[in-house]
Design a protein that fits this description.
The chain is 63% helix and 8% strand. By secondary structure, it is an alpha/beta fold. The chain has two domains: 202 residues, P-loop containing nucleotide triphosphate hydrolases (Rossmann fold, 3-Layer(aba) Sandwich); 371 residues, no CATH class. Helix 15 crosses helix 21.
Length: 611
């Protein structure tokens, strides 16, 4: 069987990864902003008794590398190691897409041109004469709609024919790579000439509708308020929808725990061993799952729907000017939004920022956004303060927009710290922000929900579970190993109490944050365990009960405010720290990422507690 290597190349956001999935059958996630695909992904398919190995190159606007993605793509294409290059073009933005295609074709590569998103182009009133385009280049041109799997068979056949009988494009211009600006002008002029001969435009209703939406969503007057309203709605659905599944999971895990206790007694296991495994490891694991799974199962899919609809780049557009004034990058807003789901994911998302200095600022400040592990702490505190009653519609609505207020404060702190870090870090220059506003699309709801659950929810939950198991054992050992008349945990909380009081907290709270390093979800249960002296992680049955317990142990409104501050401003969890180390390759930046939010939280708590 013959074997061929094929490369997929094109601008970001042209459906290139969707073409890759359709060709190979793999499920590579696609997104709607520059740099979503940072690495090269590989797959294969068979056609006409030949095997084709496909590489999905990162999206690029030019072979002149301004970013890591473009550098990777330019390097791979210039090596000319591929038997065929599939140039994926957005049929709705052909003139701009042809600029990159012409650069690639000037390398004299064997190529097939794939016109993707033809259905959207027709809805906009854009009609492309693919035969005229094919004659102009002397290359096969295939019309596709990858989402609907239309044109994929024809594309495979065209790639097979191109590999069997290679040919290069006929170009009536001479690139001038010695002068980048001049070369861009030459290519742009040639692209415009090609489009004038094969593209007919009659402005359709969809493009008019998209322009009206863009005028509203990116306007100075409505852009930010609409964003805050959508965030509030997103949090309300998450808060209101996650409460009952969490209760059901707690009930289920409680029943399993009772059965485990019965089996432990029947097997006559030593109390120390059963306590360590059941009250320590099992209770911590189930607490993390019960707290994290329902909100993530709601938040991540909804967030993915916003991504796939094309709204996320509008948020980056609205916030770009604000971030630029603080020496940060507009794409940092996207990383912040990802950080609300999981700071580890937010840190990984910082790869889309090309400039090293701006990327480091985004990594260091990402932890100011409360992740899914810290959301339950904020919800518990806000519920206790503002409702003091059973969970209901009004309380969920109140908590949601209180959370929006807290997160708005987090954004302000992020901007201030970014401004400070921009002044302190060595200058690495400022990168440009090429942000394409993709057309609004109707998300593929079923696929998006399934992909989000498997690719985000379960992966993040798996990371938390791996870390929470040993953490549960450590917490239980600290609470049940006695030195003198008190446990190790009690000795630690007493030692930390003066420092905690200085911050408007107490030693129990400070110790809970320290022990919560592996998993923030355990902070409130550790506090309850310490106050109740149970020696095992304990849940509370209602917010009235929690309010009573905390009040009996000296909590005031100042304590609650300082607790909220420290919840959003303390060191990242262990999973995020490992991710930072992996992304930056430096322990120094990892330690700085831990120190910056912690110092900010300590300073702010000290100010609040002494007012």
């Amino acid at each position: 069987m013959k074997k061929y290597s094929v490369a997929l190349a094109g601008n970001p956001n042209v459906g290139k990864s969707t073409i890759f999935n359709a060709l190979t059958g793999l499920k590579q996630h696609t997104g709607n902003w520059t740099g979503k695909t940072v690495d090269c992904f590989e797959g294969q398919f068979e056609e006409n008794q030949a095997e084709f190995f496909v590489t999905d190159l990162p999206g690029a606007y030019s072979l002149i590398s301004y970013s890591r993605e473009e550098a990777v793509t330019a390097h791979c294409l210039r090596k000319r190691e591929y038997d065929c290059v599939i140039l994926v073009l957005d049929a709705g933005a052909l003139e701009r897409n042809l600029c990159f295609a012409l650069e690639v074709l000037s390398l004299n590569v064997n190529a097939v041109i794939c016109l993707n998103l033809t259905d959207e182009a027709e809805q906009k009133g854009i009609i492309i004469d693919d035969k005229a385009l094919s004659e102009a280049f002397g290359l096969p041109v295939v019309r596709c709609c990858a989402v609907k799997k239309q044109g994929i068979k024809e594309l495979k056949a065209a790639v097979n024919n191109a590999c069997e009988a290679p040919r290069t494009a006929r170009l009536d211009f001479c690139p001038d790579y010695s002068d980048g600006k001049k070369n861009i002008e030459i290519i742009s002029k040639y692209s415009r000439k090609l489009c004038s001969g094969c593209v007919t435009v009659t402005e359709g209703d969809k493009i008019k509708h998209d322009r009206r939406l863009d005028r509203m969503l990116t306007s100075k007057a409505l852009g930010i308020p609409v964003m805050l309203l959508l965030c509030g709605l997103l949090f309300w659905i998450t808060v209101a929808g996650a409460n009952y599944p969490s209760e059901w999971l707690n009930y289920l895990f409680g029943a399993v725990k009772n059965r485990l206790d019965e089996w432990s007694a029947a097997l006559s296991l030593p109390p120390f061993l059963s306590g360590l495994l059941i009250d320590g490891v099992y209770s911590t694991l189930t607490r993390v799952i019960a707290v994290m799974l329902p909100p993530m199962a709601i938040f991540f899919p909804l967030f993915s729907l916003l991504e796939d609809s094309g709204y996320m780049p509008r948020i980056a557009f609205n916030l770009d000017r604000i971030f630029s004034r603080c020496g940060a990058h507009g794409k940092q807003s996207l990383c912040m939004m990802m950080g609300i789901g999981c700071n580890a994911c937010g840190v990984t998302g910082c790869r889309i920022i090309e400039n090293k200095k701006e990327r480091l600022i985004a990594v260091i400040t990402n932890n100011f956004m409360p992740c899914n592990g810290r959301m339950p702490i904020l919800i518990s505190l806000l519920m206790m303060c503002f409702s003091g009653a059973e969970f209901g519609f009004s309380s969920s609505f109140l908590i949601s927009f209180s959370l929006v207020g807290v997160i708005a404060c987090c954004v302000i702190v992020t901007l201030l710290v970014s401004k400070l870090l921009s002044a302190l870090l060595k200058s690495g220059g400022e990168s440009g922000f090429v942000l394409e506003l993709p057309p609004f699309r109707r998300p593929q709801i079923i696929k998006t929900l399934a992909r989000s659950f498997w690719d985000r929810t379960l992966i993040v939950l798996g990371r938390a579970v791996v870390v929470a198991a040993p953490a549960g054992a450590i917490i239980w050992l600290c609470a049940n190993i006695y030195v003198g008349d008190a446990s190790i945990l009690k000795h630690c909380t007493d030692f930390l109490d003066p420092f905690g009081r200085f911050l408007g907290l107490d030693g129990v709270i400070v110790m809970a944050f320290i022990l919560g390093f592996p998993a923030n979800e355990t902070v409130i249960p550790i506090i309850i365990m310490s106050y109740s002296a149970t020696g095992a992680l304990t849940d509370f049955e209602g917010y009235n009960e929690l309010f009573s317990l905390l009040s009996q142990n000296g909590w005031t409104i100042t304590t609650v405010v300082c607790m909220i501050i420290m919840t959003v401003m303390h060191f990242p969890c262990s999973t995020t720290c490992l991710t930072i180390k992996k992304e930056t390759g430096s322990i120094k930046w990892t330690l700085l990422s831990m120190a910056v939010p912690t110092v900010c939280g300590i300073a702010l708590c000290a100010v609040v507690s002494h007012i």
